[in-house]
Amino acid sequence: MSFSWIFRRRTLGGAAAAGLGGALAALALAWRPVIAPIPVPPPSSFSTDQVARGATLADIGDCSVCHTAEGGRPLAGGRPLATPFGVLYSDNLTPDPDTGIGHWSPEAFKRAMKDGIGRDGAHLYPALPYEHFTHVTDADLDALYAFLMTRQPVHAEAPANRLIPPLGFRPLLAGWKLLFLHKGPVPFDPSHSAEWNRGAYLTEGFAHCGACHTPRNLAGGEEGSRAYGGGVAEGWRATALDASNPAARAWTRDALYTYLATGISPDHSAAAGPMGPVIKGLSTAPEADVRAIATYIASKMLGREAAEPSPTLIDNTAAAAKAYTAGATLFAGACAGCHSQGAPMLGQGRPSLSLASNLGDGDPTSAIQDLLQGIEPPVAGRGPKMPGFADSLTDAQVAEVLAYIRARYTNRPAWPGLEKAVRVTRKEGAEP
């Protein structure tokens, strides 16, 4: 037996031992204990005030939006969420003992919200934005728990997730959390008002605005260095909420409050897409909390207000019609009745298209979605309604209309590759 053979065998053995040790260390890192089930707590065990406070936090946090399937019972889960990594289905948050959280203790609930760990010890996917909920207080989580535990139990099993292999292996999430789950309270900033600090707590915590309005890296983590620089939400472009915000008129605190409370700002535009349900929740939240959120977000956009307080409305009708003849014709037939100067419906809470943030954005995604899917008032009886044209306009026609509208109502350069962008957006809108 040669010395080299013995050396190789020892080297391979050492490598195998090191690999096994690394695997065991990784499993130890990922392992979390099961928290024992409890009897389903009776609704009478929670105070009326605590339940009411939890209801408010649930509205601010949009819980029912993600945890209610189309046509399903409120908070019973099963709603699909398309991600770059596959499709996830939301969990049942009702106190059903078999398919919901009926047997979860307050400790199990708080661990899920702050650490992303289920009662059974399994890692939860960050579609549950525990990146943000980890910053909220235990008292507020107890109130949210009280609200959920007093809902009507619904027996509803969520469908199995459909993820790209090996992402269905939940222990991998332990490594993701080491990189992207940053715990700790939202710092109180004494240089700002109490209202601003309340807004910071709500925005960074329950409202989790950065989950949509911040770019994400290839691993799905928020890019902290570009916080509120714009992101993606359910196939829509989530507009930047920093100084790069593309609105024609700078957002003020009061304009933001009006928009968040009603879904429309006369100096900007109307809420559409995923913002609709957000507005619906905030419309029932306490005015002080909504104003606090508006105050905090407005401070993120500082730098624009002094530069562009109130620009002149733009309408390059002749030049746009010459450049995009087909788009001008389509606009006259489908859009002019509501959006052209002098249109009878233009003054009924319908801002000029020159003020629409989506038209000024460098990314056409949300403008495309507006035209394909239309706009529904998020709060009954408030704001304009626009039909969708997905079934009546081809990709080429949608691109023509949008190219014309962009040229007519903004001074921004044309969107490149617009027809392809329409085709991709339409396809993504049809998923999952």
UniProtKB/TrEMBL annotation:
InterPro entries attached to this UniProt entry: Cyt_c-like_dom, Cyt_c-like_dom_sf, Cytochrome_c-type_DH, Membr-bd_ADH_cyt_c, TAT_signal
A Pfam family matched in the record: Cytochrom_C
Ranges of residues in domain Cytochrome c: 49-152, 194-301, 322-409
Keyword Heme on entry: yes
Entry annotated with the keyword Aminoacyl-tRNA synthetase: no
Subcellular location: Cell membrane
Main location: membrane
UniProt keyword list: Cell membrane, Heme, Iron, Membrane, Metal-binding, Repeat, Signal
Superkingdom of this protein's organism: Bacteria
Entry protein name: Cytochrome c
Organism: Rhizobium calliandrae
